[in-house]
Design brief:
The complex is a heterodimer of chains A (731) and B (224). Chain A has 731 residues and is α+β, with helices and mostly antiparallel strands. Chain A contains 26 helices and 28 strands. Residues 437-444 of chain A have low confidence and may be disordered. Chain B is built from 6 helices and 11 strands. Chain B has a 9-stranded mixed β-sheet. Chain B starts with a strand and ends with a helix. Classes of the chains: A alpha+beta (731), B alpha/beta (224). Chain A binds chain B through residues 138, 141-142, 145-148, 231-234, 236-237, 323-325, 403-415, 426, 428, 447-448, 557-558, 731, and chain B through 9-10, 12-13, 15-16, 19-20, 32, 34, 48-50, 52-55, 106, 108-112, 138, 140, 142, 202, 204-205, 207-208, 210-212.
């Protein structure tokens, strides 16, 4: 891919001359979709990124929010896609996705405390998606585990349209005290730019532009050079060195070298501060001889960060790098005049306005077709075979085979592990005894803050209805957090879609953007960062529009109800509009239709999701609550199946004339609650959401369903057999 | 007592271990391997992680690090030394303890909770338990399969140097409860002195009461 003719014209007009070869390559990569968001930026204004806890809104390496009740403790959050690299080289592609998002967190002055991975592959029955799954999981495992950052949450979905274009969306959360906050905005002309980390080689050349076009049929062989290769050992050293640099307070600003390498990071850093830079490309520590100016500028060699450092601190910065066996080089200066100038062998090879490199890309004005919803054409199926189809599908099955390969307990914060609705981490730094009196507020600061994390999206939902499906994905993540008694605080999003030049694809993309923006606004969850990945298109066509969301929420303390039944309470279903007669049961977007065929419209979502989420969080922490589980993928049938285990069963009766609809519709914004105080739960949801009594939990270890005219009995063992399909097939 | 938790490049359970020791009332400090072992150290932990990126074999590079000479001298002088996970691999590579930890039978990294039977409660590391007690600790490793020659294992068993074996919740030692294929389900052993020990499971991850059960506190209590 080269700089397009129309972009070249814009560059020539600005510069008053033809760009040099390195300049043209710089514009090609920085003006790529991946870096410039040229097709998506007009839509992204839909997102609310304000809020009382927002410290750094989108636009930096990562978003930053303060913790409610411990306002001097901040979280940094970011998300990144590594989709195309993970297709070409699943192990390295996924591993470097982890590395990149971790460095985005480091460069904010934070210490990374959690990772989430949302993965999307083609049909699980096919060999190629399985090969990609195994490689991607191994890549995440080896990289994430080695750097000592726990992978605590995520999602995995299979859908035929990801067959030749998997998605790997990695999010990272970091922790910092307010005084450590560092941004990617250059502070003062005359400061030095110091490059710390791995030496620069030829790997990952043109990665940004590779990520911004459709996957070619020969991509696996042809584009291998555009895939970066990671070294988690060096990343871990960089984490430790960064920690020392931040603690010593000798860094003025910082930016991770990601897409478009040094050229991208250094030009954006100085442009953000209204400055320019003079860079000596020969000063860069290099892995191999003979690198050209273009290669030095655009290499995406991993594990590198550029720091702005006051001249008097340069020596200390380099000494810290050396202590951790990391290379470092003083590569240039921040300059007053706003020009981004690079020299090589004494010659000026790049001389362009820094701001123009970052912001000059013409925005695309693309046509779109509004998506439409299908007519209703439901399959003929009884609840027994529907149960087998849905509960035994890899989409709803246990993901233990995957998360068992991730270290999810390092850093000793993990109070609730993967496999539940949301992870829960202990933020002891927010405890009152760790802080001064005036920094501490809230009712229960003795215990610290529990941080709940949920991430994911459901491609079946957004395929059926992009706008409503994205709203549902947002609501589902919020419900996951509330099910553990936490209140949503902030989110980052990763918006994936096919080739935006296709009006149908762009219409779907606009749908997921608006849907996610609207639901987050309804929930008062600011979206503080994100990533857009377009051109996820291959010989097998575009992917379903996929709005991955990684959301965090907070609560006092680290205790939360499990999703497993205790066997001693009443079972209530809250929020089900169809069972309450407030909406018709619709199977659109359901796993049942994905498995059995047929079409239907997408379920109606609650009008006021915020009140619902608040009520779930309140009830989750109530005295009588024994278990809480979000109802979503696979519907009520899957939720109940997941709650039952060898020591606890459920006896459920549902009055309905549509038993398949009742068990398998996937309206988001529902939860099953096991409680000894059903009246208190009804009171908590009064005027907010309908409450239906399902029956009682017991010690039978069997799920007994009596739904309309149908009955079904399944033991915990039978359920476990159905749900173990991924490990059965891959081990 | 001040315990040194030794940081190699790539150690990643170092801070966790300091936190856990602190919570059982043991003062601990991080010691960067290049800085050498300070005077007055009364206990040593080789923490978990991926020292030197597991280059060559897990623990092989760190075992050659100069600070290991200090550790060996301290161990010989009776200073308690505990290697956890990667620290256990380093301990075996440095011949502080017998045998080796190698690639899991599954050929994959495994992070999960396992049951362990206390085999010998008459060591500093296990005196908080009774022989035959079953405790639960997390494992998180790709190379945790204990290997040793048959005759050396016989000697170890005869000398009561097995600390823990992987077992069922009721304490029965079975192949199914062996997560990684370790010989005779061995999860931890002592050196020639029982003040030196290594184990693959992570006691420091089950020591902080605010996030769950505390079965690992007894092991770290050896330093108290």
């Amino acid at each position: 891919m080269a700089l397009s003719d129309s972009d070249r014209d814009v560059v020539v007009e600005e510069l008053g001359r033809d760009p040099t070869h390195p300049e043209a390559a710089l514009f090609e990569n920085l003006w790529s979709e991946h870096c410039s968001y040229r097709s998506s930026r007009p839509l992204l204004t839909a997102f609310e990124s304000d809020g009382e806890h927002v410290v750094v809104p989108p636009g930096d390496d990562a978003g930053v929010v303060s913790l409610p009740g411990a306002e001097d403790t901040y979280l940094a959050m970011g998300i990144e896609s590594h989709n195309h690299p993970s297709y070409v080289d699943p192990y390295d592609g996924a591993a470097t996705g982890v590395g990149g998002i971790v460095r985005d967190i480091l460069s904010m002055g934070a210490y990374p405390i959690a990772l989430t991975d949302s993965l999307y592959f083609g049909d699980f029955d096919l060999e190629y998606p399985r090969y990609l799954l195994e490689g991607v999981v191994e890549g995440i495992s080896e990289y994430g585990n080695s750097i000592g950052v726990p992978t605590v949450a995520g999602s995995v979905a299979f859908h035929e349209d990801y067959e030749e274009n998997p998605l790997v969306n990695v999010a990272c959360v970091g922790l910092l005290e307010a005084d450590r906050l560092t941004t990617a905005k250059a502070q003062t002309a005359g400061n030095k730019l110091v490059l710390v980390g791995s030496s620069t080689g030829r790997d990952g050349l043109g990665g940004a532009s590779f990520a911004s076009e459709d996957i070619a049929e020969d991509a696996e062989t042809e584009d291998r050079g555009a895939v970066q290769v990671g070294n988690p050992y060096r990343e871990k050293l960089l984490i430790e060195a960064n920690e020392q640099l931040i603690e010593a307070d000798i860094v003025e600003s910082a930016r991770d070298l990601g897409a478009a390498g040094l050229g991208g990071a250094s030009s954006e850093l100085v442009a953000k501060g209204g400055y320019g830079a003079e860079i000596d490309l020969d000063a860069i520590h290099q892995r191999e001889p003979g690198l050209s100016a273009m290669e030095l500028l655009l290499s995406e060699s991993q594990e590198r960060i550029v720091y702005e450092v006051r001249p008097e601190n340069v020596e200390r910065v380099q000494a810290i790098a050396e202590r951790y066996d990391l290379g470092s080089a003083v590569i240039g200066d921040v300059t007053e005049d706003g020009q981004y100038v690079c020299t090589k062998d004494g010659e000026v090879v790049v001389d362009v306005p820094a701001e123009f490199v970052g912001e000059g890309a013409p925005l695309a004005d693309l046509d779109r077709v509004e998506p439409s919803q299908p007519e209703t054409d439901r399959p003929e199926v009884d609840i027994e075979s529907a149960f087998e189809t849905v509960v035994g599908h890899p989409n709803t099955a246990s993901k233990r085979w995957i998360y068992r390969q991730y270290d999810h307990e390092v850093q000793v914060r993990t109070a609730m592990r993967p496999g539940d609705d949301a992870a829960l981490l202990a933020i002891r730094e927010a405890r009152a005894d760790r802080r001064s009196a005036e920094q501490s507020s809230g009712d229960n600061r003795e215990t610290g803050v529990g941080l709940a994390i949920s991430a994911g999206a459901d491609p079946n939902w957004t395929e059926a209805a992009p706008y409503e499906g994205a709203r549902a994905a947002g609501l589902e993540n919020a419900t996951n957090i509330a099910a553990k008694g936490a209140t949503p605080l902030a989110a980052v999003d990763c918006l994936n879609a096919g080739n935006p030049e296709n009006p149908d694809v762009y219409g779907e993309f606009a749908g997921i953007v608006d849907g996610l923006a609207d639901v987050c606004a309804d929930l008062s969850v600011p979206v503080v960062g994100g990533n857009v990945s377009l051109y996820n298109d291959s010989a097998t066509g575009p992917i379903p529009p996929t709005p991955t969301l990684a959301m965090v929420g907070t609560k006092d303390g680290y205790e939360a109800p499990a999703l497993s039944l205790s066997g001693e309470g009443t079972l209530l279903l809250v929020g089900d509009l169809a069972l309450a007669g407030e909406a018709e049961p619709r199977l659109g977007g359901s796993q049942l239709l994905a498995g059995e065929g047929g079409t239907d419209r997408f379920p109606t979502l609650p009008d006021d999701p915020s009140a619902f989420v608040e009520a779930v969080a309140e009830v989750a922490d109530a005295d009588g609550t024994l278990a809480v589980h979000d109802v979503s993928h696979g519907g009520l049938a899957v939720t109940l199946a997941e709650m039952v285990h060898a020591d606890a069963g459920a006896d459920v009766t549902i009055e309905t004339d549509d038993s398949v609809g009742a068990l398998f519709h996937e309206q988001a914004g529902r939860a099953v609650i096991e409680t000894t105080a059903p009246d208190a739960v009804r009171a908590a949801f009064d005027g907010i959401a309908p409450v239906v009594e399902l029956g009682k939990a017991d010690s039978s270890g069997t799920l007994s369903l009596s739904v309309g005219p149908d009955t079904l009995e399944v033991t915990a063992n039978e359920i476990a057999d159905l749900r173990s399909i991924i490990e059965d097939e891959l081990d | 007592m001040t315990v040194a938790v030794i940081q190699f490049g790539g150690s990643n359970c170092d801070r966790d271990t300091v936190q856990a020791l602190d919570s059982v009332g043991v003062e601990a400090e991080l010691i960067w391997h290049e800085d050498g072992l300070p005077a007055g150290i009364e206990g040593i932990v080789l923490p978990g992680g991926f020292s030197y990126g597991d280059f060559l074999r897990a623990g092989a590079m760190a075992a050659q690090s100069p600070i290991m000479d200090d550790v060996r001298s301290a161990a010989d002088a009776g200073t308690p030394v505990l290697g956890i996970c990667n620290g256990a691999q380093i301990g075996c590579e440095a011949s502080l303890t017998p045998g080796a930890f190698t690639t899991n039978e599954s050929d994959r990294f495994q992070c999960e909770h396992v049951h362990l039977r206390v085999e010998n409660a008459d060591t500093p590391w296990t005196r908080a338990y009774e022989e035959g007690d079953v405790i639960q600790l997390p494992i998180a490793h790709g190379e945790g399969r204990f290997e040793i020659s048959d005759d050396r294992l016989d000697t170890l068993e005869a000398d009561d140097r097995i600390l823990f074996r992987y077992c069922e919740p009721d304490g029965t030692v079975t192949p199914e409860s062996n997560p990684n294929g370790s010989k005779h389900n061995v999860a931890g052993v002592t050196g020639e002195r029982d003040s030196v020990a290594v184990m693959m499971p992570h006691p420091e991850r089950m020591s902080l009461p605010d996030i769950g059960p505390t079965d690992g506190r007894g092991v770290l209590g050896a330093f108290a």
